[in-house]
Fold this protein.
Amino acid sequence: MTAVRIGIVTVSDRASRGEYEDRGGPALREYLTEVMATPWEAVARIVPDERPVLEETLIELCDREECCLVVTTGGTGPAQRDITPEATETVCDKMMPGFGELMRKVSLEKVPTAILSRQTAGIRGSSLIINLPGQPKAIRECLDAVMPAVPYCVELIDGPYIETDPDQVVAFRPKKK
């Protein structure tokens, strides 16, 4: 079985310059290693908070690297340089606002400042792009909330069939008649 390719993008000026340890990318990789039952390989990037650079990276991961799923970490807040949702919206054919709504709902149960987060998700071709916050704990909470829908969404957009470890995350699929 061929491994599915998953893009992992850390959006951070300081991490891209090597001034700050990237904690988001490794947290994403650790999470996916725990929950994925389907063989997968990471295609990782660290980019600055520069919209054209992030847009090109997302296009590369979806179109040329053929990642069925691209997860970003960082750049979803209200600060001037937080541009991840805008870059995602620019490169996507369809937006999937339910992902961001659910992630904010889950995060609001933990911290009142979750209303400041602008995570979103969208589809480019047969790739699902999900924007996540930058903090490892928040990454896990948000992915726990949306991951049950990710395999079926990827399947619906003509991506590969993805299975999760049911002891970690139960992937939703409609019952066959």
Notes: The first strand starts at residue 4 and ends at 11. The chain has seven helices and six strands. Residues 4-156 form a domain with the Molybdenum Cofactor Biosythetic Enzyme; Chain A fold (CATH 3.40.980.10).
